[in-house]
Amino acid sequence: MDVDRFANHARCFSDRAWKRMPLQLLYPAASFEIPLPTALDAMIGYAEQIGEGFSYVRVDLYEVDGRAKFGETTFYPGAGLEVFKPKEFDALFGAQWK
């Protein structure tokens, strides 16, 4: 999740259970907890449908007034040049491409 994109841009990664993952990508990790979206189940479902058939695709979704909204799909986030911290996550995400 990207937060405060036009002020103090930060990113936060979480798993399906909304547990924060210990990694960073280009921007620092958000220093605050991000509330669980009420539309999270729908967002996961949409991402799975959109991503079906691809070995890797990032699906951007937003919650607006409690409903999931589609943003975009990206096959090479950051042109494939952004580096994860810790570096082990580069291999984990890179292994998705076939």
Question: Would you give an account of this structure?
Answer:
The chain has helices at 40-51, 88-94; strands spanning 2-3, 10-11, 24-25, 58-64, 67-74, 84-85. The protein is an alpha+beta fold and 98 residues long. The longest helix has 12 residues, at 40-51. It is built from 2 helices and 6 strands. 0% of the residues are buried. The strands form 3 sheets. It has a two-stranded antiparallel sheet with strand order 1-2. A two-stranded antiparallel sheet has the order 3-6. It has one domain (2-94). Strand 1 and strand 2 (10-11) form a beta hairpin.
Number of helices: 2
Integer-rounded radius of gyration:
14 Å
**Helix coverage percent of residues?**
10-25%
Shape: globular
Extended strand count: 6
How far the N terminus sits from the C terminus, by CA atoms, comes to 25 Å
Q: Write down the overall mean pLDDT.
A: 92
Relative strand content: 15-25%
Note the quaternary state here. Answer: single chain
Low-confidence parts: none
List the SSEs and their pairings.
Blueprint: E1 2-3, E2 10-11, E3 24-25, H1 40-51, E4 58-64, E5 67-74, E6 84-85, H2 88-94
Antiparallel strand pairs: 1-2, 3-6, 4-5
